[in-house]
Design brief:
By secondary structure, the protein is an alpha/beta fold. It has one domain: Maf protein, CATH 3.90.950.10.
Length: about 190
């Protein structure tokens, strides 16, 4: 049974490769602006489902299609990828010296029968206080500009993180153990 990743994310692909998965990536773009009345968990679950459905419509079975979406939540606000360096700096100022939540939605669809699983994972991440100079230098590195919440725990951003509670891989963008359990429940056999 093939594994299809409904994502263009190099980080998600790297997690799967390093965990020994063989897969095909099928990038799927969806509108990633949360409606005012949708909470973070519902938002990421919906986006993961939309991505999985789009990819499933373009693939043939037997396969399992995996969609995922990750956001940062602080003060009840949902942060996706920053649209500019200034927005990245604003996000990092808000996260500096505080704990926030990383929420990832996960959706799996088995083809051809359409059996599915939808789930989410939350991880608490604590940042050390960052000076204005540290924030500026980090943003200037370019790393924050394509990541939800304007940081990458697996890169330079990791130097500012003092604690996590929950799945590390969730913070990178794919809750690996949760994904594995759902794959097995849908009949996928590890290779």
């Amino acid at each position: 049974m093939k594994l299809i990743l409904a994502s263009a994310s190099s980080r998600r692909a790297q997690i799967l490769r390093e965990a020994g998965f063989t897969f095909e990536a099928v990038p799927c773009d969806v509108q990633e602006t949360p409606p005012k009345d949708e909470g973070p968990r519902e938002f990421v679950r919906r986006l993961a489902q939309e991505k999985a459905r789009l990819a499933a419509a373009r693939c043939a079975g037997p396969a399992i299609v995996v969609g995922a979406d990750t956001v940062i939540v602080a003060d009840g606000q949902i942060f996706g990828k920053p649209r500019s360096a200034e927005e990245a700096k604003a996000m990092l100022r808000l996260l500096s010296g505080r704990t926030h939540t990383v929420s990832t939605g996960l959706a799996l669809i088995r083809l051809p029968d359409g059996a599915s699983r939808v789930d989410s994972a939350e991880t608490q991440v604590t940042f050390e206080a960052m000076s204005a100079e540290e924030i500026s230098a980090y943003v200037a590195s370019g790393e924050p500009l394509d990541k939800a919440g304007a940081y990458g725990i697996q890169g330079r951003g990791g130097r500012f993180i003092s604690r996590i509670e929950g799945c590390y891989f969730n913070v990178v963008g794919l809750p690996l153990a949760k994904l594995y359990r759902h794959l097995v429940s849908l009949g996928w056999k590890p290779g």
